[in-house]
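Weekend entry, working from home. Most of the wet-lab plans are on hold until the incubator is repaired, so I used the time to fold the two sequences that have been sitting in the queue since the last round of cloning. Logging both here for the record. First:
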Amino acid sequence: MSTQVKKTYRKLNPDMLYDEMRDILARHGLSTHEERMQTYSIGSGATQSRVTAPVMDNQNRQAGTMHILGSADANVRMALTLEEDLISEDVISAVHEDLEFILGSYEVKW
């Protein structure tokens, strides 16, 4: 079973979001490897960016995924999936708490 966190942030650079998420995960014994960063141009001349990365546990097993999509309107969406059979509930909760504390002021509340 997996836990999925989906967030939309306003006025946040996708690269900054990725860097913050990488650091939050590292504080809790997780890491990202082989991230793919892509930039796409759109008709108006603006760009959109996309970051995908597997989330690895301390035994180098894939324990989740992270997807970040930045749009030209300064909104950034993130989907973080963590596998509960490889990551303890305490670690998942701590990641979520850090995410809320550090990035909560940027979050779009629906």
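Second, folded right after the first finished:
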Amino acid sequence: MIEKNVNLYFIYKMMKLISIILLLLSNFIYAQKIIENDSLKKYSFLDLKIKFDNYYFRDKTYESKLIAKYFLQKAKNERNESQIADGYMLMQFDATFTDALKYIDSVNIYSTKLDKKVYPAKIYLLRGNLYFKFDYFKQALDSYILALRYAKENKNERQIAFTELNIAFLQNYIGKYKEAAKTFRYYLYNGKALYNIERSQIQQNLVDAYIALNKLDSAKVLIKEGIQSSLKNKDKYNYYKYLCLQSYYNLKTENYKKAVSDLLLCKKYFSTDPSDLNINYTLFVLGKTYIGLHEKDKTVQNFIEIDSNIQKTNNTFPELREVYTYLIDYYKEKNDKEKQLYYIDRFLKVDQKLDEQFRYLSVELPKKYDTPNLLQEKEDLINDLKNRKKNLYISISILLLILLLILYLYYKAKKTAKEHQKIAQELIHNIENKNSKSSDIKKELIESKISEQTEAEGENKATKAVPEDVIQALIKELEDFENKEDFLKNGITLASLAKNIKTNTAYLSEIINTYKEKNFTTYLNDLRIDYVLRRLVKDKKFRSYKLTAIAEELGYNNVQAFSTAFKKKTGTTPSIYIKEIEKTTTH
């Protein structure tokens, strides 16, 4: 039976916190001071809201009321409609039900010109919290459903979170702990729009639900975290709330003596304010613990205190049935008919109210909240599946394109390799058969690809600026350069060659361009590549060299320059050419 009771004691506190958070733009709490010593005039509206939160959340009702009144008067004096709305909101927190409802109606009037993303969902949230506080659960649920609708329309994540948390409290009330725990767990770990102080309250409710569901290990972990955090932050109020939860845990695990020890401390702390529902929580768990210790008189003492508090506040909870049936049975055993009759009367009044609430919530919660949520979840799943299928088709298409590209590149590479092999084989064949005496092997061997620039005589090609005797001399020098294989030397340039043969670069460049039909760089590369083509065929040892060593022997500074020049002239690569030579020699 205790599982139905524990959750409700935290709900009222959470209602207070959520209502205040709707006002606050910041979560920082000033150090508490006695309000009579404060000069409220020096505070801004935001500062006043923070101070209100500081007092109200710690049940300093007198101080929080003074701040609320001053806040509202300040807003009216300044004719600030936004702050007037907030002032009425502050006023409703500790007011009677009738007055609080009037204050919320005033908020509604002033909110018509305010941020539509916040209103009217904020109004329905406030009404829902007020109805919940005074046990009007039917009206509370209806208000929360409307608040949720407007919050979703405006995509206000904080209001959506608060509304769904409030509905989770109602689920707890009718024993739907699993559904409530799901909501608490989600917002504890995924509530990006929530502040740390809000998550602390959610964590306490999740612990409560876990214990009700007998998920004791999970509850124990969160209780330990909560106690450590409250001690670290010197937060007495939350420390004792977690101590109460730990006592509930100890009750479930039958560690009665430890539970009693802690609960007596909690009772002393919370008894200063009978309106604080944590005192009823403490008294109920303490009474249940004494039942475990077979101390009936102490159980009765605590249950009587609960009845006294209920008559003062009129706040009921489902486990009151257990409280009153225990008292009825106790006085029946004592043969005290007067008290037995009294508690029967109390039971009937409370039971009628609880029964009405339970019946309405049991029917309307699934209809107005659970079913729409399931339909939305179904729609989300359908959309998710559609998106997954779409993404799957896109992924398959991309994979097919990649596969086709790979196949294309593979066949292209194979084709290129075959072409390179064919070129290499032709080069080898022509060199072995000595079909060409030309220094430009590729031109002679591969279908004479280089066309003649002109059919005129070489003498007429030369620039008139170069004397005839110089032309003949330079042609002779170039022949010597080729025959002596000086082109294999590293670092040869047009300037260095011109210097060696005692001419200028202009004459030399002109002769090479005219008679060799290429520029100096191409001329030099062609000589080197023609040389390496012949030597690789003839010299087996030379073929065993690494390409780096071959490049150095040819006068290149690096293997990349050699490979580029080789492929440009022959159409194949040095590696393929060498492999084809090896195949030829092995056969």
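Plan for Monday: verify the second prediction. The radius of gyration is 47 Å.
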